[in-house]
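Class prep. Write one:
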Amino acid sequence: MTLYTSTVVTPRRRSRVWAKIGESTLYAIGLPLLLLVIWGVWATISPALFFPPPLEILDAFVDTWIGPAFVTDVLPSLGRLAIGIVISITVGIVAGTLIGLNRWLRELLEPMLEFFRAVPPPVLLPIVVVLMGPTDAMKIVVIVVGSVWPILLNTIEGVRSTDSVMTETARSFAVTPGERLRYLVLPAASPRIMAGVRQSLSIALILMVISELAYSSSGLGYQIVYFQRNYLIAEMWSGILLLGLIGILLAAIFGLVERRVLRWYHGIKEVERA
């Protein structure tokens, strides 16, 4: 008896990676482009002093920020912003972990934490200026004072809500406190911590501008107010555009870090959705 075998060739499906990238790009830039087109048409039909056309703002952006102003105003502002964010993350995670692990400390500090969290950070600006003067350190302190709270409170809640069964299991296996903190508590609290960091980034950017509005002679916030007071409208809008681009850059960097830190968390979510 002769056996005949044949190979069934299944056509290989094309990878949809590039298609997904194209769709994501279209969704990301589609609405902004549409709004820019509407803005440009409206500015052409009905010109307004305080709403110049997008091309005029783009020209002002290139003339204003691509040059010495980037070194003298933008880079110092970004430096203070980066230092403030790093200090806020460090203080928020360390202090939040200590408070979350100690019930008596949490109950002792909770009323005070809620009080200071409710105080708007810009209100503290005159006090910080009186204590420290109009220095770079003052601007960094203003950023830290306002942006540390989401990280601190989310860390406290994340540490406090660590699964009690897993905690008892770790104790029964004689896991040291350091190992329990590293391999159980912080990973369990990391989704809440990253959510607090996301909120703090936008707050830090806002406070960077506020700290430069009235008590500074340089910086991105100072330049925007300077343009507004001197009726340099296109230049003022270019500063706002630069702030938006900085916000997008911060969000992109945070997205990369979050995907790396929370790989296990997103993997669990994918399995649950499957």
Residues 17 and 23 are 10 Å apart (CA to CA).
